[in-house]
Q: What sequence folds into this?
């Protein structure tokens, strides 16, 4: 079992930056992956980015590619999402998840943490 705790959300103006953290604890697998999803009011939860714990390979949604960077600190069992050039449409509740691949498919992820709110104003 894996427990995930997300933090770092807040309010920022358009064009600003924010860094989210997701601390993981508990049992993991050799080829585990961690990802970020977000959900805005009235919209479906969408994939943002993911990273393979072992290889460091990453996967990004087209909407955030070039602006967001996902990374991991193996020693701290923590994954980060550095968000730059934020836009109002990035406003959402961001949740971290753990699974077996860096797929964009939500069903791939088994463990979920509670979300952290990100608000981007014009």
A:
């Amino acid at each position: 079992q894996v427990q995930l705790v997300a933090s770092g959300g807040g309010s920022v103006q358009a064009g600003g930056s924010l860094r989210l953290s997701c601390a993981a604890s508990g049992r993991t697998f050799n080829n585990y992956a961690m990802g970020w999803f977000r959900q805005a009011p009235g919209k479906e939860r969408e994939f943002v980015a993911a990273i393979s714990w072992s290889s460091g390979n990453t996967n990004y949604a087209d909407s955030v590619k070039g602006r967001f960077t996902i990374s991991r600190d193996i020693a701290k069992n923590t994954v980060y999402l550095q968000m730059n050039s934020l836009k109002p449409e990035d406003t959402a509740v961001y949740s971290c998840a753990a699974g077996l691949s860096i797929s964009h498919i939500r069903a791939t992820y088994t463990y979920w943490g509670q979300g952290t709110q990100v608000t981007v104003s014009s």
Summary: The chain has no helices and eleven strands. The radius of gyration is 13 Å. The chain has a mean pLDDT of 94. The first strand starts at residue 2 and ends at 7.
